[in-house]
Protein: Phosphate transport system ATP-binding protein
Amino acid sequence: PGYAAGTVRGQATTAVLERPPLAALEAKNISAWFGDHQVLDRVSLTMPAGVITSLIGPSGCGKSTFLRILNRMHELVPSASLAGEVLIDHEDIYSADRKLVDARKSIGMVFQKPNPFPAMSIYDNVIAGLRLTGTQVGRAERDFLVESCLTKAGLWKEVRDRLRAPGGGLSGGQQQRLCIARSLAVTPRVLLMDEPCSALDPTSTRVIEETMLELVNDVTIVIVTHNMQQAQRVSTQCAFFLASQGKPGGIVEYGDTEAMFSKPIDSRTYDYVNGVF
Ligand code: ADP
Ligand code: MG
Structure:
């Protein structure tokens, strides 16, 4: 698996296509604010390499904020501030000598609403990240990368004959897989997915879930989901977020997904996973 060991039209591919090793992601004592409104309070979570971690919990408890902190998107909001550390393989993504572009390249993000560049071709959508990160790739390598990423995203067979068609012409589920392919093109080590199936029908949802289960051999995945069946189908580990009575959000319970659903420790987890709130 991976992008490595590829040969395109007789040419050996170069480093850009090589798969980086799997990485663990670790959040330590993350607190977050918008202005003086604190939305997360000292959240720590280890997201192990090569597994899918689900973040669950009611709306407004800070799951998306937490996810955005994991790839330095939180700082794009002018009023936002944070405390704590995010380590990818023990290296702080917020350290002063680490460039923002490196953090973004190593930690990809897929959003709830599929957001390919609609007028741009499917082919160009996949490699859009290379332009943004200033990565130079030859034509043959580009072709190989596009095929490889679309294959990994489970979309290659459906689009191989229309790579020049606009991304916006695809169905919702296909657009989401195109976004996954786009995020893979910069060979991230972690893929963050914020409710990636909420806007999709059940069939497309299952296709994306199968894609995730394949992908996790190559890239560590963190997913926010409101779908309890989905959390159980895809994730090895699960964290339950809650913000009680005007307090900032935090993790009530985390651990093995199977255990959390079958015998949760906290009564609030029990109520949430059983649909009481
Ligand atoms: P979740 O993803 O769990 O629904 P969010 O992380 O989106 O939760 O939101 C957590 C809290 O932060 C909420 O109270 C929300 O209103 C607030 N919030 C989120 N984004 C912003 C923003 N850009 N500006 C101000 N407050 C925000
Ligand atoms: Mg959210």
